[in-house]
Specification:
Helices cover 80% and strands 0% of the residues. The protein is built from 5 helices and no strands. Helix 1 packs antiparallel against helix 3 and helix 4 packs antiparallel against helix 5. Bound molecules: MU-OXO-diiron. The site of MU-OXO-diiron (FEO) has 7 residues, from helix 1, helix 2 and helix 3.
Amino acid sequence: MIKEKVLEALNEQLNFEFHSAYHYLAMESYFRTLNLRGFAHWMRKQYQEERMHALRIYDYIHERDNKVKLNLLSEPPSEWDSPLVALEDAYQQEQHASGMINDLVDMALAERDHATDIFLKWFVERQVDEEARVGGIIQKLKLIGDDRYGLFLIDRDLE
Ligand code: FEO
């Protein structure tokens, strides 16, 4: 069994991963309406990844003989002012996820829950990668500014 405190935090993380998935799905719809298929495709991949993260925690909680509690998902935005603003939003979401994972690691160690600490290592690594990937797209978008052709090229790359 997992200690109550750690279980609650894992459960919160699981729900946040579903929230992130939902948020990315809203972004996919936004990019589809702009006919930016590469960005939309990339957002769909993030949606699938976040769901996979949630299910990974879901399975772990059950493996440790506990039960999951699913919460209501909050409504994500449906519009962003520009592709750059949408990606910056995604970046903030990833930073928030990283902060939550780091807090969880601290808690697992403080509670001497080494199994949870080891389980979380994969998430720590994923977050480094995810922040870097979103950050990389933001850098390119900043570089092209208002250049429509540049946007077309980034979109083609992401496809
Ligand atoms: Fe699962 Fe990108 O946080």
